[in-house]
Design goal:
149 residues, mainly alpha, two-stranded antiparallel sheet, 6 helices, 2 strands, 5% strand
Length: 149
């Protein structure tokens, strides 16, 4: 399968969107959905989440920052805005939460959660390396800057 082949063509006969472009966008959406839903879910379980954070020695006052990181970071990645910087932030966030909350390797579930967070960090690092792709605000702003210069 040629993922670079266009899914559709514009009126001028040029590729409007390729399978690769669509796959990059879909990957960003799928990777971000976990963070978006997790951040939004913390609103409904605010006191329980703050208590859980306190149980591992983190002040509950950090919860608004956690929610903002998850929700705004996910939305930025989905839109493809400041993708490399945001993905680097979320990779660090994923590794930090793995180390703080999922370090009990005697509990198989915690070990799996740790490895899940490490794997997600790997996905974020791929975005750091490759960027958001053409279906992104990063690409649009880059193209506008090129036209202006």
């Amino acid at each position: 399968m040629n993922v670079s082949a266009p899914l559709a063509t514009s009126e001028r006969g040029t590729a409007a969107i390729s399978a690769k472009d669509f796959t990059e966008l879909l990957g960003r959406v799928l990777l971000s959905t976990l963070f978006l839903l997790s951040g939004l879910g913390k609103f409904g379980a605010y006191s329980g989440t703050a208590a859980y954070m306190a149980s591992v020695g983190l002040p509950g006052s950090l919860l608004p920052l956690v929610i903002a990181t998850e929700v705004l970071g996910a939305l930025a990645i989905i839109a493809g805005w400041q993708t490399r910087a945001t993905a680097l932030l979320l990779a660090g966030f994923s590794l930090l939460t793995a180390a703080i909350f999922h370090h009990n390797f005697n509990d198989q579930i915690q070990m799996i959660m740790f490895l899940k967070n490490v794997s997600i960090a790997g996905g974020w690092l791929l975005l750091v390396a490759h960027g958001a792709g053409p279906l992104s605000l990063d690409q649009r702003f880059s193209a506008q800057r090129k036209l202006q210069s």
